From TrEMBL:
Protein name: Phosphoserine phosphatase
Pathway connected to this protein: Amino-acid biosynthesis; L-serine biosynthesis; L-serine from 3-phospho-D-glycerate: step 3/3
Domain DUF4072 intervals: 3-49
Biological source species: Paraburkholderia acidicola
Annotated keywords: Amino-acid biosynthesis, Hydrolase, Magnesium, Metal-binding, Serine biosynthesis
Main enzyme class: hydrolase
GO terms assigned for molecular function: hydrolase activity
Entry EC no(s): 3.1.3.3
Name of the gene: serB
SUPFAM superfamilies linked: HAD-like (SSF56784)
Pfam families: DUF4072 (PF13284), HAD (PF12710)
Catalytic activity line of the entry: O-phospho-D-serine + H2O = D-serine + phosphate; O-phospho-L-serine + H2O = L-serine + phosphate
């Protein structure tokens, strides 16, 4: 396998020899100042590599030799805490004074401690009842930020011919704005019910849970005429696991431990554009 090592800071030559040795690899090739590739690496050496990379703030990933980004046809992304830095529902909750309560449920759900995502979402949305819908616009304008490297990653994916899908257990108010702003091809999320300009504390239609996320990925692949093995899926929480398992390559981004362990690749330090360096 190829082993790609990345860092937010430049990787000095002093790391090349130790990493080649730990990986039982052949040689280190500089990709750019923030990444190197080690050819002929042994995936069985993950334990030693994990210790070294953790100590030196490095991310590493094993990639099949010769694989290229254009081999894939679809890039699927979770929204909250993946494409963007916030959990939108937590920030909405801040406007009605229940952020701590909602955030605690969000965190437990993402760690997989609350098994029923639908129940988790219903509990959180119910706490928003009566909030003026203008709070959604304020969250988007004042608090929503793209994750590091997001725009560069999307530009690289589009240049390689991939279509883009944003699929979220969050809300269409935000996914549609991002779809337009970033030129994404597809988006799917939950719809908050609004009556007389206020949130009712309910969502309308089918809730986008883990099963629906995975189904959306498969259906989008079918629409594009490709197999799910040609999809990349990126996420951070337990409700992304089924979607990530359905894809040919899964990327855990600043993710919960249960997601990092299941993913093909984990980025704990570098930005989303780390995806481009893998190929």
């Amino acid at each position: 396998m190829n082993l790609v090592i990345q860092s937010l800071t430049p990787i000095g030559p002093e790391h090349h020899k130790p990493l080649v040795g730990l990986a039982r690899g052949k040689r280190a090739t500089v990709i750019d100042t923030h990444a190197i590739r080690i050819d002929g690496a042994d995936p069985a050496q993950r334990g030693d590599l994990d210790v070294y990379c953790h100590t030196h703030d490095l991310d590493y990933a094993f990639v099949e030799p010769g694989r290229q980004l254009r081999d894939f046809g679809l890039l699927t992304m979770d929204m909250d805490s993946t494409l963007i830095t916030i959990e939108c529902i937590d920030e909405i909750a801040d406007f009605c004074g229940v952020k701590a309560e909602v955030a605690a449920i969000t965190e437990a759900s993402m760690r997989g401690e609350i098994k029923d995502f639908n129940e988790s979402l219903a509990r959180r949305v119910a706490l928003l009842k009566g909030l003026d819908a203008s709070a959604l616009e304020r969250v988007y304008d004042e608090r929503l930020h793209l994750s590091l490297g997001a725009e560069r990653m999307l530009a690289g994916a589009k240049a390689a011919g991939l279509k883009t899908l944003l699929v979220s257990g969050g809300f269409t108010f935000f996914t549609e704005k991002l779809r337009t702003r970033l030129g994404l091809d597809f988006a799917h999320a939950n719809t908050l019910e609004i009556v007389d300009g206020k949130l009712t504390g309910r969502v309308t239609g089918e809730i986008v849970d883990a099963e629906v996320k995975a189904r959306t990925l498969r259906e989008t692949c079918a629409q594009l005429g490709i197999e799910p093995s040609r999809a990349i899926a990126m996420g951070d929480g337990s409700n992304d696991l089924e979607m990530m398992a359905a894809a040919g390559l899964s990327v855990a981004f600043r993710a919960k431990p249960i997601v990092r362990e299941a993913a093909s690749v984990a980025f704990d330090r570098v930005g989303l554009d780390g995806l481009l360096r893998l190929f």
